[in-house]
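name: query_chain
kind: protein
chains: 1
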Amino acid sequence: MALIHKKKTPFPINKCLREYLLEHERERPLPISYRDLTRYSNSIALYDRHGKDTLWETVFFAESESDQVYQALKEIYSILKAAGDLSVIDHLFIDRIDICIYGNTRPFRIRIVNRINDNFDYFYIKNADASRIYGLELEHILSPNRINYLVCDNTLVEEHIAGIPGDQFIENYLSGPDINEIRLAKEFVKFNERTFVRLLGDMHSNNFVIDITPDFEETHYRIRAIDFDQQSFEGKRTVYMPQYFKQNNPIINLGIKLMTPETVRQYQREEQSLIASRIKSSRYRLKTLIDCMANDKISKPHHINRLKKEMADYYQDERFLDCHSMGEIVKTSLRMLMEKDRLRQ
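structure:
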């Protein structure tokens, strides 16, 4: 069983990562910072439509500041979604600002609404954390999903990742008559492979969403990570494998019931080949990122020492023992994947 007992301490953005963000247009001037939002004047607990405490609080600003705050947030949304074209925000208004008081980065969630058709969207403003940014970038490069985010000094802005939260999917959808169990089980195997290869941890059902796409004959599923705080931090190998989280057992049990070990290996190889293709298409960008990561401090020495030993034992490959940082462990993991891919060709 994979367990994380303590919250992770955020790590600052170093010079190398900052230059990477500037080069790839992730760093942009923003009209308001995370710290500005912490100066709210009042808050109340936020409950869902069933009366259950969501563990978020809705915050309020002094009347003298609220108009300025709301305008700045709309401008950020235009930068995030439309490269700063302010015409897209003419009919938008800020409906609510919430803060998650238990999260590592104490994120703010902004609900923005189109007053013409009541359509709404969310985005998030957080205290920037280097390991989370590495997680976002690796997701963007190595997964089938594109990630949209911005950084300004110590402020991180992320777009909302749409989908059914994993815990809600398991509770409300998994036993439904329209669920294609084998396709869902296959997607979980591929998701497990993606997170382990790039060492994204803590992928229990609260930290991923399931995107459902109906097709003319079948239904397709994609599992998407939504929490990147545990990118290459913990020292226990199983933390990076969603198959070891008990919250995911209902989906895992589908795989046990429906798939043979050989079928699982086939799906793992399929995902490895896809990741290898993504590495080839973004090799220079990925190399720059991994080089920054290899020389950055995003974990603790005892975590690094434990993980490299567990990875060396798991893969029966002593190259992991020569790693001195989490970035080097990720680099070795990706190198091994590319070697396997070449052998299969």
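note: Residues 164-344 form a domain with the Phosphatidylinositol 3-kinase Catalytic Subunit; Chain A, Domain 5 fold (CATH 1.10.1070).
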